[in-house]
Structures are given as structure tokens and as C-alpha cells.
Design brief:
Blueprint lengths: L44 H12 L23 H8 L18 H18 L3 E3 L5 H18 L8 E5 L5 H8 L3 E5 L9 H7 L4 E7 L11 H10 L3 E6 L18 E4 L1 H4 L14 E3 L11 E4 L5 E4 L16 H37 L15 E4 L1 H4 L5 H10 L6 E2 L8 E4 L7 H20 L1 H6 L11 H6 L8
Parallel strand pairs: 2-3, 2-4, 4-5, 5-6
Antiparallel strand pairs: 1-7, 6-7, 8-9, 10-12, 11-12
Helix pairs in contact: 2-9, 3-9, 4-5, 9-12
Bound molecules: pyridoxal-5'-phosphate (PLP).
Length: about 475
């Protein structure tokens, strides 16, 4: 496929601009004036439409294909939600931050304030900051809040460790390490959750926090959370809840009710914005009351007369973690999403997401190894170990699915499962779609036995077949001639 610049034909135009009625500037220094034309591609509107439409068709998206990428919650997000983000587009983000600017922004601040209240309610927290721009950014913000809490108690040097189960998302230990902590990893027991006895041994007064992904990356919800958080608190360690996958538990359990002190949620998974695809995200962080003094500023606070003001004068704050109030458009979509569904709707979302994952798990169980065979939450994790005997790896099954029109599930993650295949259907897929996918997965398992080479050769329908994935990320060449 040609690059857009290679399609350029001098003089061809997609738009016609009116003649300029602005006088030519004379004061600009000669050195700053452009001597040559900018070299932009010259194309008709139709050329351009075809170019980008064809490019987009070389990609997978939720709008075109089933996308069961585990841990990413690739659900369909209603297009109407984009309208709510567009509503706010005319407002300049500086307005509220100018002296007295709150007066002009009561509606905008009100949306943020209400969203914070609704997320607090959903997570069982006392206040939410919307600043963090992604899940991992929320984690770092949360751990910095915990560090500030310990520092304020005079325990900064005493608290050295963050305890993380090995079934946590990889960003958890990474965020804690970036915030300056050493990591203690607790292995998973055969029952699929953090080994409780080993956890007890790992705990001591030098632990600053216990960070848990719930449900964990095996798609399982830890039934011992209350006990774990009681033990953590007895050592003055705070409990961090990675709520990136809140899709499994909304309206069913509030992390704040079972002992968690901090939680981040990924609005760009559960609440109306797609995850992946390089678009903006948002990882708001909710905290219990003890952590409110350390929250990033400005905080939006409501005065007695109901007016919303920005609070900027707290000496204990960890400071800003992002510009303005975070990715505002994502917040507007989350707000509309929550309002649109309401309490009952959110409960239905998680029930359907969990039901769908269990349906796929039960139907594929006869064909793929299921290392942790129990009721799962929003996703199920198989192992390709049975197919390995025929020389077929998880990656080969993934590539085969591409040929059959499916985005592959997450593979090789979580790392505690050999050749993992992690499937998350989400609540927005119909039984018909899941049944078709299940048939193709069964076909892949049979092909692994009868004709493994067919899987090793896949994909055959794509412009390029297999990339050296490490090299492709480090030596990008997006100009290759397909
Ligand atoms: C996606 C995810 C994250 C990271 O979120 P980003 O927005 O990609 O930084 C963290 N934890 C879990 C469990 C996730 O699924």
C-alpha cells in the first residue's frame, strides 16, 4: 500500500479556501519565513477518504470484530456517549483555573463533582480524584498517596515494602517500584488466589501497602479479602485495590466495604471509552477519608450554598499528577454512561459480563486445559498445554483466530499460566457471536491434533504474516511495501 505522500499529485485539492483577507505580516524576521512549500500531500477528498478507510480496514476493532482480549474489557461503547464529550468541547480548560473562573464553570465542575460522587458510591470510597490519565498512572498516584500518609505519621523510612500477589497485573509492582518501594511477591495457591499462609508470613510492620488486582488476572475473586485487609491494617499497611476490571463487580461489591483504602478504576475499560487503540484514558483514584488530605489539587469542593469551588491550599497534597482535571472527554463519557445505565443497569452489566465468561469457560473446557477450574468473574484463563504436545503454542492459536476474523484473546498473560489464553467476552457480545467464536476455538483445538502445520502457518489472510514482535517494537518501519 502506498503512503499518502506517494499518492500526492501536484495541484490536486480536497478543499478550496477563500482568498485571504488578512494583510501579509511585514514584521516577521526573514529567518522565520518559510522558503519552500510545506510538502503536504495533495489529494482530492475522495483519494483521502479511500486511503484512510482502506487503512482502517487492515485493523481489528470492536466495531468490526469480536475482540475477546482478556484484561482489556473490549466492550462496545455506544456512539451516543461521544455526544456527551462533544458537548463540552467549546470550553477552554483554563477557564475554571483563572481567578474567579469557578463562577463560569459551575456546570463543568458539577459534572466532575457528580462523577466523583458516583464513582465513590460504586467503589465505596469517600472521595475521588479524576486527574490520573490511565490505570497505571492511577496506581502510581494511589501509592504516592499511601507514601504521603506514612510520611505524615513519621513512618517514611520505616515503611519499605509493598506486598503484591503474583496474580496481580504487572503494572502493580511496577507502579509501587516507581513510587520508591521494594516489592514482596506472594505466590498463588492451587486454589487460584494469593496463598494466605505465605501472605501472613510476608507481612510485617515495614509493609506500606498490599496491592491487589481484584478479580485477579486469573479472573478469580479472592474470598479472603476481609481477612487479608484486617491483617494488613494490623500492621498499619493500607490496602490498594486495582479496579481496572471493575466490569466484573459493579453493584455487587464495593471495595471500600471489604477493607480497601485506595482504588483506581479504568474509565477506558468499564465506563464508556474503549481501551487500547491509543486514545485517551482515565484512571480516577478513590480514597478513604484518611487519605483525602493528600489528594492532588485542585480539589472540587461544595460550599454550604451548593456552589462548587476549587480548593488549592492544602499543604499535605502530593501535588498535581496531571494537567487540569485529567482527560475531561473521557470523564464526560463515563458520566453519561453511569447516568444512562443507572444502578440496575450497572448491576446487569457485571452479571452479564460474568455469565458470558463462564459460558465460554464451560463450553471450551473439554478442548483446552483450564488450570484453575472454578467459577470465574469477567474472564477465563485457559492453557494451550494440551496443544503443546502437537507443537502448537498459544501464539499459533491466536494467529489462526485472526484468519477466522477474530481478534485474538490475550496470550502468555498471566505469566503464572503456561501458554495462557485469556478470554474476556464482555457483556456486550451476544450468545450468537460467542457460539460462533467457540466453534472456531474448537476447530483450532481439532486442527492442532489433525494438522498442526495449518496453525503454525497462520495467518494467511493478512497483508503480512508473522512479525518478530520484539524487533517490530524496537525497529519500527511503518513504510514497508505491502
Ligand atoms: C489494564 C489494566 C491496568 C493498566 O491500565 P492502563 O490504563 O493500561 O495503564 C492495570 N491493572 C489491570 C488489572 C488492568 O487490566
Amino acid at each position: 500500500m502506498q503512503l499518502i505522500y506517494e499518492k500526492s499529485i501536484p495541484g490536486r485539492r480536497g478543499i478550496k479556501l477563500p482568498t485571504s483577507d488578512v494583510p501579509a505580516a511585514s514584521a516577521l524576521p526573514q529567518a522565520l519565513l518559510r522558503q519552500e512549500a510545506a510538502g503536504l500531500a495533495e489529494l482530492s477528498e475522495l483519494d483521502l477518504v479511500r486511503h484512510f478507510t482502506n487503512l482502517s480496514r487492515r485493523n481489528f476493532s470492536v466495531d468490526t470484530n469480536f475482540y475477546p482480549l482478556g484484561s482489556c474489557t473490549m466492550k462496545y461503547n455506544a456512539k451516543v456517549l461521544e455526544n456527551s464529550a462533544a458537548l463540552f468541547a467549546p470550553f477552554h480548560p483554563m477557564t475554571a483555573l483563572l481567578p474567579g473562573g469557578e463562577e463560569f464553570c459551575q456546570g463543568t465542575l458539577g459534572m466532575l463533582y457528580d462523577l466523583g460522587q458516583m464513582l465513590s458510591d460504586i467503589t465505596g470510597m469517600d472521595e475521588v480524584t479524576t486527574q490520573p490519565l490511565a490505570g497505571a498512572h492511577g496506581e502510581m498516584t494511589g501509592i504516592l498517596l499511601i507514601a504521603a500518609y506514612h510520611a505524615a505519621k513519621g513512618n517514611k523510612s520505616k515503611k519499605k515494602y509493598v506486598v503484591v500477589p503474583d496474580s496481580s497485573h504487572g503494572t502493580n509492582p511496577a507502579s509501587a517500584a516507581i513510587a520508591g518501594y521494594e516489592i514482596i511477591t506472594v505466590p498463588t495457591a492451587p486454589y487460584g488466589d494469593m496463598d494466605l499462609e505465605l501472605f501472613k508470613k510476608a507481612m510485617n510492620d515495614e509493609v506500606a501497602a498490599v496491592m491487589m488486582t481484584c478479580p485477579n488476572t486469573l479472573g478469580l475473586f479472592n474470598p479472603h479479602i476481609k481477612e487479608i485487609s484486617d491483617i494488613a491494617h494490623s500492621h498499619d499497611a493500607l490496602m490498594y485495590y486495582d479496579g481496572a476490571n471493575l466490569n466484573a463487580i459493579m453493584g455487587k461489591v464495593k471495595p471500600g466495604d471489604v477493607g480497601f483504602d485506595v482504588v483506581h478504576v479504568n474509565l477506558h475499560k468499564t465506563f464508556g471509552t474503549p481501551h487500547g487503540g491509543g486514545g485517551p484514558g482515565a484512571g480516577p483514584v478513590g480514597v478513604k477519608e484518611v487519605l483525602i488530605p493528600f489528594l492532588p489539587q485542585p480539589r472540587i469542593v461544595m460550599e454550604d450554598d451548593g456552589k462548587l469551588m476549587l480548593e488549592n491550599s492544602n499543604p499535605c497534597t502530593i501535588g498535581r499528577t496531571a494537567g487540569f482535571f485529567g482527560n475531561f472527554g473521557v470523564m464526560a463519557k463515563a458520566y453519561a454512561y453511569i447516568i444512562m445505565l443507572g444502578r440496575e443497569g450497572l448491576i446487569q452489566v457485571s452479571e452479564q459480563a460474568v455469565l458470558n465468561a463462564n459460558y465460554i469457560k464451560e463450553r471450551l473446557k473439554p478442548y483446552y486445559d483450564l488450570p484453575y477450574d472454578m467459577t470465574c468473574m469477567h474472564e477465563c484463563v485457559f492453557s494451550a498445554s494440551r496443544q503443546l504436545k502437537h507443537g502448537v503454542h498459544a501464539i499459533d492459536i491466536a494467529k489462526y483466530l485472526i484468519d477466522r476474523g477474530y481478534h485474538p484473546p490475550t496470550v502468555y498473560f498471566p505469566m503464572i499460566v503456561k501458554d495462557a489464553i485469556m478470554i474476556e467476552p464482555t457483556e456486550t457480545e451476544s450468545k450468537v457471536t460467542m457460539d460462533e467464536f467457540i466453534e472456531v476455538m474448537i476447530e483450532a483445538a481439532k486442527t492442532a491434533e489433525d494438522n498442526p502445520q495449518a496453525l503454525l502457518d497462520a495467518p494467511l489472510t493478512m497483508p503480512i504474516s508473522r512479525l518478530d514482535e520484539t524487533k517490530a517494537a524496537r525497529e519500527q518501519n511503518v513504510c514497508c511495501q505491502w
